[in-house]
Amino acid sequence: MKALELSPLSLNQLTRDLWGQFDCSAIALLAGLASEKCYQPKFYKAPGDSREVVAAFGYQAYGMKVTPGSILYAFYLPCVPVPGDLTTSAPPPFTVQITDVSMEHKWFDDPVASLFLSNYKPTYQSVTDLQQGSFPNLICAPYPVVGTGMFEVEIWNTSNEEQRLQLVLGALEVCG
Questions:
Q1: How many angstroms separate the Cα of 59 from the Cα of each of 9, 46, 74, 147?
Q2: 147: phi > 0 → left, psi -120 to 50 → alpha, else beta; which?
Q3: Residue 8 φ/ψ, nearest 5 degrees
Q4: Where are the domains of the chain?
Q5: Among residues of the chain, what percentage have pLDDT more than 70?
Q6: 3-state secondary structure at position 160
Q7: 37-87 tens-digit pLDDT
C-alpha cells in the first residue's frame, strides 16, 4: 500500500486549507518532492551582498544564475515589525521584476510591490530584539528552471531613504 505524501511545509500550524488561499494547493504540489533524494533545498538571493544597499528611489539590476532543472517554489521576504508597534509589520518598500532570460518571460506584467511578495505568517517573535521568523510566500505553482537558468532581477527602491534590499527565492535544486 502506498503511503500518502506529506510535505514538511504542511506541518506549519498557520497554514490551513481555506477557500481563496493557495498555500495548501502549492504545498500539495510540492509534497511528492519532500521525500525525493534528487532535490535539496537551496536559497538564491538578489542582489548580491556588495549591491544590497540601494540609494533613495534607486534602481538595481542583478543577474542570478539558478541551476537548470531546479524548481523555484517561494519568496522569503519577511515583514519587519515597526519599532514600538508589534502589531504593524511590513517589508521594506520596493518594487521588483523577475525575468527568465532563457524563456524571455517576465514573471509579472508590471513590477510588483514588495508587500505582495512578503508573507506575514510569523513562526516566532523575539521579545528582546524584534527578530521574527516567517513562513515563506509560496509561488502558486512551482516554477521549473530550464535553459541556461539565468534570471534578471530588477529592484526599484520606492523609499526616499537609502535602504538595504534583498529578495530571497527558495528552490529545490537538482542534485547532480
A1: 34, 13, 23, 27
A2: left
A3: -60, -25
A4: 38-174
A5: 67
A6: coil
A7: 888 888 999 887 788 888 899 999 999 999 998 989 888 887 666 666 555
Q: The C-alpha cell of 31 is what?
A: 509534497
Q: How far apart are the first and last CA of the chain?
A: 30
Q: Are 126 and 134 in contact (CB under 8 A)?
A: no
Question: Rounded to whole angstroms, how far apart are CA atoms 33 and 11?
Answer: 15
Is the omega angle on the peptide bond into residue 47 within 30 degrees of 0, that is, cis? yes
Q: Which residues 6+ apart lie within 8 Å of 90 measured at CB?
A: 79, 80, 82, 115, 118
Question: In terms of CATH architecture, what is 38-174?
Answer: Sandwich (2.60)
Has this prediction a pTM greater than 0.90?
A: no
Q: State which H helix or E strand residue 29 sits in.
A: helix 23-31
Q: What is the pLDDT of residues 3-21, one digit of tens each?
A: 555 555 555 555 555 545 6
